[in-house]
Amino acid sequence: MTALGIGGLSVTMPHKNAVAEFVTQIGVVDEVVRITNSANTVVLRPDNSLWATNTDGDGCCNALEQAMNSSIKGERVIVLGAGGTASAVAYAMVQRGASDVAVINRTPQRAQELVNRVAGSTRIVSSGEIANAISDARIIINTTPVGFGDEQGSQVSPIDVSLIKSSHVVLDAVYKPLITGLLLASQKAGAKVVDGLSMLVHQAALQQQHWIGQMGDTALMRECALVHLART
């Protein structure tokens, strides 16, 4: 990084776990990376050592709290997926006081590993408990790639959309298309929806703070991102 004049890196899937392990070996990582084994932000420090963190979780929480105009504290949350993003999101939810963080994943072993790492109010949801868990929750967060790259208006969803109610707040980390099958179904059910671009710009604003010491302007970042997405 020094030779290239790079002061920081933004890491995306599927490299978050590998980067976390790499920086753990040769540099310094913060608590979120140590617990989740997932890094999306690398900073080259003045002494040329590397430091890593993960802003996905706080970016997700900030996007949700802005949309809800209320705190995560006390909320019951569903996290779909058990990868690097899911781990960071679950960790942040626990740190912000969510009363229940239920993890749903097609591979139960990976979900259990996430719960073991993050602990706190996290728990694994078996296939037979999914309907009740979703019914009891207020917030549903999709961290899986289901829906990524689909056509706008696609009906592909990581869960049975008939389980979504108007009382739910649904965030899909997928931002292309902006309105995924999950969000489209959620809108039809009357739920509040938060698109993946909102989470993306909120986590990117936090990354900018780590790199240059100044929080990014999320409204401006979203506007620029929308222009770029319209061209692709």
From TrEMBL:
Q: Which GO terms describe its molecular function?
A: NADP binding; shikimate 3-dehydrogenase (NADP+) activity
Q: Which InterPro entries match?
A: Aminoacid_DH-like_N_sf, NAD(P)-bd_dom_sf, SDH_C, Shikimate_DH_fam, Shikm_DH/Glu-tRNA_Rdtase
Task: Please tell me one Gene Ontology term that the record gives under cellular component.
Answer: cytosol
Q: Name one GO biological process term.
A: chorismate biosynthetic process
In Pfam terms, one family for this protein is Shikimate_DH
- The residues covered by the Quinate/shikimate 5-dehydrogenase/glutamyl-tRNA reductase domain are 68-144
Q: Where is the SDH C-terminal domain?
A: 196-223
PANTHER family on file: BIFUNCTIONAL 3-DEHYDROQUINATE DEHYDRATASE_SHIKIMATE DEHYDROGENASE, CHLOROPLASTIC, SHIKIMATE DEHYDROGENASE
- Name it: Unannotated protein
Q: Which organism is the protein's source?
A: freshwater metagenome
Lineage per the UniProt record: unclassified sequences, metagenomes, ecological metagenomes
